[in-house]
Amino acid sequence: MREKETNNNAGAISSPTPMLQVHDRDQAAGDTNNGGMRTTETLLRLIPIAPCIAALVVMLHNSQTNDFGSVSYSHLGAFRYLVHVNGICAGYSLLSAVIAAMPRPPKMSQAWTFFFLDQVMTYLVLAAGAASTEVLYLAFKGNPAITWSSACSSFPTFCHKATASVAVTFVVVASYALLSLISSYKLFTNYQPPTLNPAISKPSIQVATFHA
Amino acid sequence: MREKETNNNAGAISSPTPMLQVHDRDQAAGDTNNGGMRTTETLLRLIPIAPCIAALVVMLHNSQTNDFGSVSYSHLGAFRYLVHVNGICAGYSLLSAVIAAMPRPPKMSQAWTFFFLDQVMTYLVLAAGAASTEVLYLAFKGNPAITWSSACSSFPTFCHKATASVAVTFVVVASYALLSLISSYKLFTNYQPPTLNPAISKPSIQVATFHA
């Protein structure tokens, strides 16, 4: 992949002074534009924090004791994983929002890090949601073939709280799918399209040297 | 998001004839480049077909009958979902490889469709893998708190075949994570970076009109 060249030397031969003025005005407009983009990204990165913490807290306090016995989220691997992933997600969302809010020129290393971590976070949260959904499905329905009883008939409150937590986790999945899209966009727009001809995409000032 | 302008009118004022020759030569190079890119993408899209079919076939023939009873993949929702998703995955991989192989100019609608469907496919296969892993975990370990017995002690062959199918499904997940990255790259390189100044990025021939 080839990084793009910024052809801000455009028109430098014919009229240096007017071009400089244009550049200055555009620079100011670009800064405002960058500020708006930064604020939007920071807000989008803050959005998943609330559902992450909500899903985490609901699951963390999910336990039920009755005549059938006692059950807690910690008895089920998928629910423990869901709690951990939501904790990591809340921390990462806050950290990435702080980094995205910093007023500094965009760096390729940061774009790659955000792209990679957003993808990983999406996959982790989705896996937690899918595994927990499967446990809930088995807990509600049971499985006669392998003699697993329907646990939710014995522990209805536990199952309802777990369902709420899993549903909120899927809100986090949706938020992260969107954030992954945005970080892909921010990363790959810095590269040349694979089908674009490198010689054609060079600024005209360099191509003009061909004519002698 | 702004689509990029191809500044292939570069140098048109100073020397039209040499530029045309350069353009022709570059066009041929570009076509070869596009052909190579197309072949690579087609091959990458063909790769997941084998693991999809392998995971599907292994799971589809997974059943065991012994003194404890009879168990089949169809008794478990997660395994049925895994079979369906692997079938869809194999079909989509083949179809997308055929479309990617067609020698025609790249279209934005196709780039958006591939991007969207690759993401959806990754999420579907990952969810199937995660849910099935959770079932296997429960089947191997059991869960005393909710009185679920370890089914794998009664049906070891069933569990081993299911484990093999799930492991192969994660190969499909990895392939699709890579394909998602490639389709993101192919789509978003056609857009301007969010921080790039629109006036600066215009070809010099247009900026030159500013000077009068």
TrEMBL record, chains A, B:
Specify whether Ribonucleoprotein is a keyword of the entry: no
Feature: compositional bias, Polar residues: 7-18
Cellular component aspect of the GO annotation: plasma membrane
- Membrane topology summary: Multi-pass membrane protein
Q: Transmembrane residues, as ranges?
A: 43-61, 81-102, 114-140, 160-182
Q: List locations, semicolon-separated.
A: Cell membrane
Q: Which UniProt keywords apply?
A: Cell membrane, Membrane, Transmembrane, Transmembrane helix
**Whom does it interact with, and what assembly results?**
Homodimer and heterodimers.
Please report which protein family the annotation says this sequence is part of.
Belongs to the Casparian strip membrane proteins (CASP) family.
**What is the recorded name of this protein?**
CASP-like protein
Question: What organism is the protein native to?
Answer: Parasponia andersonii (Sponia andersonii)
